[in-house]
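Q: Focus on the chain.
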Amino acid sequence: MNALYAKRWTLFSLLLAAALLAAAAAPAAAAPLPLPAFQIGVEEARTPEEVAVVLQIIALLTILSLAPAILVLMTSFTRLVVVFNFLRQAIGVQQAPPNQVLIGLALFITFFVMAPVWQQVHQTALRPYLDKEISYQQAFESAQTPVRKFMLANTREKDLALFVKVSGAERPRTPADVAMLALIPAFVISELKTAFIIGFVLYVPFLVIDMVVASVLLSMGMMMLPPVMISLPFKLMLFVLVDGWNIVIGSLIKSFGVV
């Protein structure tokens, strides 16, 4: 019996060893697999069709990632949204209108104010480039002209001089000589200053109402009653009677030179 088991284990061991030797010898005898060769080249594109699709996608993603900053810092959006927040705080309502409504309103007014500028960009830069009349460098330079004109019209000379002086550049002789690197931050702080001035003007009438209501309550001995609770309906009534939204938005649009 033991001899029979020994013969079986010997036969199993020989078969296992033969299988392992065959598996080890098979890769050596097999022909090597051919590997594909890749060639990558980058050349200067002279026409829009020659630009690689991958590079177009990368450029599009870059523009989309910078689009919020471009919209906020190089358009009328900054002044509008800051003034709307000042107006809401001056009236005394913290969540009405909500932030989504104010931002949406500021966006659509921005589209309205910037429409002439974007039309010029489309006519002088985008359309000629798509029609293969100019190169992308010329299209980029042509697109800067209307945007630069809008920002220079709404930028204070003092703010612009600050960034030109800090950058160490020579004093520009013409508006076309102003670098965008100095023009954009100068435009932003000019917009913030203008928005703060408008916010101060908006605060004055509502502040007067708060002072009058507080004085009346104090004279009546109602010191435990919050004045804001009483003055809020009067401020809302005043704002509605004078058609405040029409006045504020109309004044903001006219402040950008749009009639």
Remarks:
- The two ends are 112 Å apart (CA to CA).
- DSSP finds nine helices and no strands in the chain.
